[in-house]
Specification:
Elements: H1 2-13, H2 17-25, H3 37-49, H4 51-58, H5 62-69, H6 121-133, H7 140-147, H8 151-165, H9 208-212
Helix pairs in contact: 3-4, 7-8
Length: 213
């Protein structure tokens, strides 16, 4: 039914549409949309309190209109062939090759530039791995001597926190193909015991009962 009513309504709705549109367009000033009640009250209050300013706002300023008619904007494309001289105070980078990806996500400083008492992320992972392999011989004193660290700091921070709560990934290989111990990957002692004896298995289900049913 809705389609029937719309087919009857559309001819009356579009009747003399072009002339009505021209009539609205040819009006000297369009009819503004109705204001909100609160906005209308503010508008009337402004007219009562500042009548002169309101009347001036409705008048056309001939002086400003004349100035606007004398304003011209000319756009010109810049000459791209002109080579600008580089600023010595703000030199551009000479090497524009892409930045390489670092192994730890950040650039490691040079070993010679590492201050005394500090270490890098690569060194931390190295002594964590070596401590996992041999915790007795590679102790806090050995770490402090190798990386020039304070032994008290190594005992409190590194041994008490880092070596206690952090581990590197461990890699386990099948015993038949393993020929050497893993170095950086962690201890290579097998922790998985493979059971080769055949255990008792459940009997297969009796399908004859299901077929008889």
């Amino acid at each position: 039914m809705g389609k029937v009513f719309s087919s009857i309504k559309n001819p009356f709705k579009n009747f003399n549409l072009e002339s009505r549109a021209h009539k609205v367009i040819s009006q000297p000033k369009p009819i503004p949309a109705p204001r909100h009640k609160r906005d209308q009250e503010t508008y009337e209050q402004m007219i009562q309190e500042y009548p002169k300013a309101f009347e001036e706002s409705l008048k056309k300023n001939e002086k400003l209109d004349k100035h606007l008619k004398n304003v011209f904007v000319v756009s010109q494309d810049p000459n791209v062939n002109i080579k600008q001289e580089p600023n010595p105070n703000r030199p551009l980078p000479a090497d524009r090759s892409p930045v390489p990806s670092f192994i730890y996500g950040i650039k490691e400083p040079d070993p010679e530039k590492i201050p005394t008492g500090k270490t890098t992320l690569g060194n931390v992972l190295e002594f964590i791995s070596r401590h996992q392999e041999d915790p007795i011989n590679y102790n806090a004193q050995k770490i402090a001597e190798q990386y020039v660290l304070d032994e008290a700091t190594v005992v409190i921070i590194i041994v008490g926190n880092i070596l206690k709560y952090f581990r590197v990934f461990e890699m386990y290989l099948p015993q038949e193909t393993r020929s050497a111990k893993a170095k950086f990957a962690g201890p290579s002692l097998p922790r998985i015991h493979v059971i080769k004896n055949i255990r008792k298995q459940l009997p297969p289900p009796d399908l004859s009962k299901n077929q008889n049913d």
